[in-house]
Amino acid sequence: MNNTSADAPQSVPGTGSQGSSGTRPRPRSHRWTSADLSLIAVFAALTAVFSLLPGVPLGAGVPITLQTLAVMLTGMLLGPARGAAAVGLFLLAGLAGLPVFSGFSGGLGVLAGPSAGYLLSFPVAAAVVGLLAGLVLRRTRRARPALLFAAALATSFLVVHPAGIAGLMLNAHLSFPAALAADMAFWPGDVIKNVLAAVVAVSVFKAFPSMAAPERRSR
To answer: Is 218 in contact with 27 (CB distance < 8 Å)?
Structure first.
């Protein structure tokens, strides 16, 4: 007996069934849970702690600190959106006056200092390294430490260092060659910090495999 149009089976929107065209349903949108918000707060505090650890002062007025290690690690572990949110929360807290920046400094006055470019680049850097790390986690299980290191290093030289050089030129009144020379003092330390970030991230992913899940990265 043939089915009529009234009693023919029909797909119900949102149930996940596929139509005759074989198209997949739209992925469900994700909202941050209380666990996500807790992770954002924890990594914002971690970035502050790394910033407050004693740094190595340089002539340009920007000390060598562990801030970039925290930024890269946050982006790798939390992904682009939550990583940027965590680092952005740290930045907003400092600009609001909390002494969370290097040397226990804070307030809007830091935007007139030589380190302004570096600080303002951090949320963007967390987002970029989170995106690149997500690609690594989705596409391969081999050579993850090396690929995550490459993602962090690329982010450093494409985002953090150009912004830092611009800040030195604007606020420290350095010429481009002088600002570039001052920025180069951070390169060896950044290589080491990016290696550490990649190694720690891989260790965390092994201990907590859910943190490396691809669907987490799309939030």
So the answer is: yes
Contact yes or no for 189/64 (Cβ under 8 A)? yes
Question: What's the predicted TM-score (pTM) here?
Answer: 0.82
Q: Which residues contact 166 (CB under 8 A, 6 or more apart)?
A: 117, 179
Angstrom distance (rounded) from CA 4 to CA 202: 57
Task: Report the C-alpha gap between 172 and 174 in whole angstroms.
Answer: 6
SS3 of 20-49: the string is CCCCCCCCCCCCCCHHHHHHHHHHHHHHHH
The one-letter amino acid at 206: K
Report the percentage of the chain scoring pLDDT > 70.
Answer: 82
How far apart are the C-alpha atoms of 18 and 15, rounded to whole Å? 9
What whole-number distance in Å separates Cα of residue 156 and Cα of residue 41?
23
At CB < 8 A and 24+ separation, what contacts does 195-198 make? 195/149, 196/69, 197/69, 197/72, 197/73, 197/76, 197/148, 197/149, 197/152, 198/76, 198/144, 198/145, 198/146, 198/148, 198/149, 198/151, 198/152
How far is 121 from 103, CA to CA, in rounded Å? Answer: 19
Asked whether the predicted pLDDT for residue 30 surpasses 60, the reply is: yes
CA distance 104 to 51: 9
Pairwise CA distance, residues 157 & 170, whole Å: 19
